[in-house]
Every structure is written in C-alpha cells, then in structure tokens.
C-alpha cells in the first residue's frame, strides 16, 4: 500500500492498532474471514478491518478502549459498526472497524515548540 512519504508517528499509531484489531478478530469474533484494507484519501489514512464473525462488539473492552485513546490522541477517529448491511438476515453480522488518521499526525506524542 502506497501511503505517500513514510511517517514514523503515523506508523507508530497504526501498527499496534492493526495488531490489536487482528488479535480481537482471532480471539473473539469466531470469524471465518477477515479483510484488512488500508487506503489514503483526502489527506487521511483509513484502516478498515472487517470480519464475518458473530458481531456484538463490546466497545468497553480494554483493547478497543486503548485503540480509541491512541487514535484520538493522534487526531484520528474510530468507528465500530456491523459489517453486514442486512443485520436481520441469516447472515452473521460481523464487525467493521474503521480507523482514520491524518496523513501527518502527532502520534499522540508531545510536540515541542521553540519559545
């Protein structure tokens, strides 16, 4: 995936977030399939992890709380939603988590300025 110029602060946010999201799918979702998509659009990096698991995301879990804190601290957002557009069907609902970060982010780290 081409994301423009390397950005250590952005990558320091995305790498552990991706690791935690994939761990959640493997441990809790009961999924048969997981799709990871990364793209750049309008000065934002979007990381989307979608699974076909049982759904029922618990947003109060430590992992998702940590992801949200990390991403929001870097100026980004986290959306959690059912993956299926037909939640009342016989299809399992799955979960989709979308993380958006500015292309150049602070990584939640303090920024020093000259006085």
Mean pLDDT rating: 81
User: DSSP strand (E) fraction?
Assistant: 25-35%
User: Whole-number radius of gyration?
Assistant: 15 Å
Major beta-sheet overview: 4 strands, antiparallel
Which strands sit side by side, in order, in the main sheet?
1-2-4-3
User: What is the chains' assembly state?
Assistant: single chain
Molecular shape: globular
Instruction: Give the SSE string.
Output: HEEHEE
How many strand elements? 4
Structural class: alpha+beta
Give the helix proportion (percent range): 25-40%
Report how far apart the termini are: 39 Å
Number of continuous helical runs: 2
Q: Which consecutive residue ranges, at least 5 long each, have pLDDT under 50?
A: 107-115
Quick overview:
The protein is of the alpha+beta class and 115 residues long. It contains two helices and four strands. The model is unreliable at 107-115 (pLDDT under 50).
Structure keywords:
disordered C terminus, 4-stranded antiparallel sheet, alpha+beta
């Amino acid at each position: 995936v081409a994301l423009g110029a390397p950005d250590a602060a952005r990558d320091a946010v995305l790498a552990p977030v991706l690791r935690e999201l994939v761990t959640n799918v493997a441990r809790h979702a009961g999924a048969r399939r997981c799709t990871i998509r990364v793209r750049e659009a309008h000065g934002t990096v979007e990381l989307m992890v979608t699974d076909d698991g049982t759904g029922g995301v618990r947003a109060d879990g430590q992992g998702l709380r940590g992801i949200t804190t990390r991403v929001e601290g870097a100026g980004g957002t986290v959306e959690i939603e059912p993956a299926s557009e037909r939640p009342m069907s016989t299809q399992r609902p799955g979960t989709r988590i979308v993380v958006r970060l500015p292309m150049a982010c602070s990584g939640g780290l303090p920024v020093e300025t000259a006085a």
